């Protein structure tokens, strides 16, 4: 996706965990697009202190923010975040929720701000949310596909609730299924199983098509709170249409993160 945005001469900020791994990406982008304004921002969304530091660092630059793409994700973990949450929930929902909240003031300054949550078709499998999954814990537990699916429903609910809270502003939201992509999201799954799964998955370039559509499509100006698959609007899981559920998720996550409610 950053390659496509670079080709459009967008100013890019890559919020990533590892500067060492991001540096070659930036160098490659600049080599192909001379004059490109692209920078690295240290951010580990599973760590709320890192999220707060990243947001503060970006806001301090004074740079505008037109599009925020929440794309970090992980599956199959067995670990606890620095703040005591299950790592899958911390990475896929809790951290991005806080980051979005902290950057909202700058997005509101944009003439056409967009928030894009990369979710997954896995969210259709969820029948209910057991709120205990968001509780702090001291013992790590293996997060399975069911947990991943719940976090992806949370991404859709987050975009829906943001759309309601930002109604009447210049900021719109969307959530989407990028397709089953052979990305690093599966890094916590045993190697042989990773290899087998990725044989049947999309490339990163193919997986970037729908996020890019949500971030840039002219026809989506003023359209908010919708869910997309293959660059087309699609009805989400009926649970995602529940204003009560979306509001409760917002309130619970705001309490966990100390974000404004």
Nutshell version of this structure?
It is built from nine helices and seven strands. With 261 residues, the chain is α/β, with parallel strands linked by helices.
Report what the structure shows:
The chain has 261 residues and is of the alpha/beta class. It folds into 2 domains: 1-42, no CATH class; 46-257, 3-Layer(aba) Sandwich (Rossmann fold). Helices cover 43% and strands 12% of the residues. The chain contains 9 helices and 7 strands; from the N terminus they run H-E-H-E-H-E-H-E-H-E-H-H-H-E-E-H. The protein has helices spanning 2-7, 19-32, 48-61, 87-108, 145-165, 191-198, 204-207, 209-216, 243-257; strands at residues 12-16, 38-42, 67-70, 114-118, 172-177, 226-229, 232-233. The strands form 2 sheets. A 5-stranded mixed sheet has the order 3-4-5-6-7, with helices on both faces. Helix 3 runs parallel beside helix 4. The longest helix is centred in the middle third of the chain and has 22 residues, at 87-108. The model has no long low-confidence stretch (mean pLDDT 92).
Strand segment count: 7
The description of the largest β-sheet is: 5 strands, mixed
Mind telling me which CATH architecture of the largest domain this is? Answer: 3-Layer(aba) Sandwich
Separation of the first and last Cα atoms: 32 Å
Strand order of the largest sheet: 3-4-5-6-7
Helical segment tally? 9
Question: What is the 3D shape?
Answer: globular
Helix-strand topology string: HEHEHEHEHEHHHEEH
CATH hierarchy class name of the largest domain = Alpha Beta
Number of domains: 2
Name the CATH homologous superfamily of the largest domain: NAD(P)-binding Rossmann-like Domain
